[in-house]
Specification:
The chain has three helices and twelve strands; from the N terminus they run αββββββααββββββ. By secondary structure, the chain is mainly beta.
């Protein structure tokens, strides 16, 4: 089990708010949000959902569900835990203080999606109707040709309602297979936003009765010898 910050699809949607060097002034507020993601690659479709509860940049909990099963990941400062709810076993890892400080400096990434989207070149386009409501919408085209479209809930907080990423990507379907072009369309719906709430500190700790295996520490990079 990989104990790095989870990289499953729902979190990738929040990456817009985490891009280093692109961030507008950070916003620090606790929040909870539910995400549903549908990813279509060529003729294949995958559905996932996740609930994210975040107290600070380095203190959050993700509960993910997909056809392949469920997983819970907690990041709490220097400590990271990951396990499947059906199991009494999981993995525990340590982050370094530098990584924690960087995460904390970015505040609340979910609340940074819109300002960073605009900073990266997002322009206002025609409103999009979602669930019978016309929503303010922005769009930008990345250097790789992918088109990103962000629709917002009404209000001054500019909370994301839907993020759509569409285009052609180059990727290998399996380890060792050649790079090929694939049509990608990914839609992430954000619902049940709760901003500025008080979160129970207990959700950022694993339940009792669990057994955690320590994750191996990453090896330091090799430094070439001077000739």
């Amino acid at each position: 089990m990989n104990l790095s910050i989870p990289k499953f699809v729902p979190m990738s949607a929040l990456a817009v708010g985490l891009i280093a060097g692109q961030s507008a002034r950070s916003i620090a507020q606790s929040y909870a949000v539910y995400m549903e993601v549908v990813t279509k690659t060529d003729n294949q479709s995958r559905e996932e959902s996740a609930k994210l509860s975040l107290q600070a940049g380095s203190r959050f909990r993700v509960e993910q569900s997909s056809k392949g099963g469920s997983r819970i990941v907690i990041v709490n400062g220097l400590n990271t835990w990951a396990w499947e709810p059906s199991s009494k076993n999981g993995m525990h890892g340590k982050q370094n203080a530098k990584a924690v400080a960087k995460m904390d400096a970015q505040g609340s990434p979910g609340l940074m999606i819109f300002p960073n989207f605009v900073k990266m070149g997002g322009k206002k386009v025609s409103a999009v109707r979602i669930d019978g409501q016309m929503l303010e919408t922005y769009e930008y085209k990345a250097k790789n040709g992918m088109v990103h479209t962000l629709s917002l809930y009404p209000g001054t907080q500019h909370l994301p309602r839907r993020l759509v990423e569409a285009g052609v990507i180059r990727a290998a379907t399996s380890l060792g297979s050649p790079m090929e072009s694939h049509i990608l369309n990914r839609q992430t719906d954000f619902t049940n936003w709760k901003v500025g709430i008080t979160l129970d500190p207990g959700i950022f700790k694993p339940p009792g009765g669990m057994t955690f295996q320590e994750a191996p520490q990453a090896a330091p990079p090799l430094v070439p010898k001077k000739k």
